[in-house]
Design brief:
With 521 residues, this protein is mainly β. The protein has 3 domains: 71 residues, Sandwich (Immunoglobulin-like); 166 residues, 3 Solenoid (Pectate Lyase C-like); 226 residues, 3 Solenoid (Pectate Lyase C-like). The strands form 7 sheets. It has a 23-stranded parallel sheet that branches. A 7-stranded parallel sheet has the order 30-33-35-37-40-42-44, with no helix packed on it. Strands 4-3-6-7 form a 4-stranded antiparallel sheet, with no helix packed on it. The radius of gyration is 23 Å and the shape is globular.
Amino acid sequence: MIQILYLGSSSVCMELQNDSPYYAEGTYTVSVNGETVLQSDTNVFSLFDLLPDTAYTAVVDYKGQKEEIAFKTASETCCVSVKDFGAAGDGVHEDTAAIQAAVNFVPEGGRVYFPEGTYLTLPISLRSHLTIELSEKAVLLGSTDRERYPILKETAKDPFTGKEIQMSSFEGNEVPAYQSLLHGAFASDIAIVGRGRIDGNAQNGDWWKDFKDFPAMRPRAVFLNRCRNVSFHGVTVANSPSWHMHPFYSKEIGMYDLYIEAPKVSPNTDAIDPEGCDGVTIIGCRFSVGDDCIAVKSGKIEMARKYRQPADHHTVRNCLMQFGHGALTLGSELAGGIRNLSVTKCLFRATDRGLRIKSRRGRGKDSIITNVLFDNIRMEGVLTPIVINLWYNCCDPDRYTEYVWSREHLPVDDRTPHMGEFCFRNMVCTDAEAAACYIDGLPESPIDKVVLENISVTFAKDAKPHVPAMQNFATGKCRLGFYLDNVREIEVRNVKMKGQVGEMLIADHYDKITTEGFEQE
């Protein structure tokens, strides 16, 4: 069975229904109206260059069986080319004014089209009820002239009522930041589609150099501030000055069949960091970046107290995550809480950590993380497949203080975070190095429950020591089995392990533990 994930006026994204993470079990062909247009081996595929308001019939030939899918593209009011507004598209002349003019001009339900070319630009402000399409050989290229990027204050103040309107944020705090390359604020019904490229061009500027001395935080490639119903389909996003895509207190955000890339050594270039959002869907995407591939966030304690908005209803499926610090991360800015998260059918390759949850004292009593499911995951060459770390020591001025690192049972107060129930199941992990699983809770606020079920871990024969979790006084581990500390209830079922050094399971400070079906290969 095949499911339509996204259907716009000129493109459609579909997903094969099976149990294989990211890749299908063999290649398949796709025909449209009788003509073969695509051959692929991934569970998610896309069709582009379609006509608006037009009926199509696609036939997928997979494993000798054919499935027919009929669909009709969305209608639109009009389509305009940025070149009709004076865009040069030569990568030399700046096209900011022409692009913004096209975006401002097109009526509701219209499409702004980028034909082949390289469009050098400063930040562009998005508006509601708009589609932007980047054709296959179109590149939206960020200018390297940092001095010309507007700096947004953390908040704007109504001059008559004094009411604050949040403008800018980074790493969970309200702080000034350079405007992002594509910037949306309080906008809705937007689609960014096509086979083209949004390139922050940071590698050719100074965004990755001495950035701690900048007068404001670096921009993202895409920043959505309190937007709603925004879809991204097919595009490549690359070389952002910092995080690539940052939906912020937004709702109904869909990301389908994207490729997000940056050099492995590029600083803070997370792929997608939804923060305080409700309803984020990330399916069929591929990542290779210099930090976390996906990091679900909900702000640090002051912002969480102010807005009381958890990250809720997030779905990640059929994604490929390569390199980076973590494949799928929660936190560390999760003071508003995270709930109802599902991560399934994903493939992780050569990331430092696979499923990574990071928090610390000081995130606050609203930092309740619960109803989190990780299912049907394959990891290859991931140093530590599973990490829950309540001693995270980065990104805060007090990171090295005793309050953060003390192993004593400290008083529970309004700064104390809470971790609920987590389920990790149906995972195959090969060539791990540091540890199979490293879960380290707080003594005064233990994790409620961890279920580890149907998991196979094989360690690399040439494994080297690595730090499994970023903590003060951390030491390298090599081929450590399942390590759990300060978890109230532990369930471990049907676990296979090969190549570990020492016990398969090391658990301390728990109330209840259930183990069934441990097997050492």
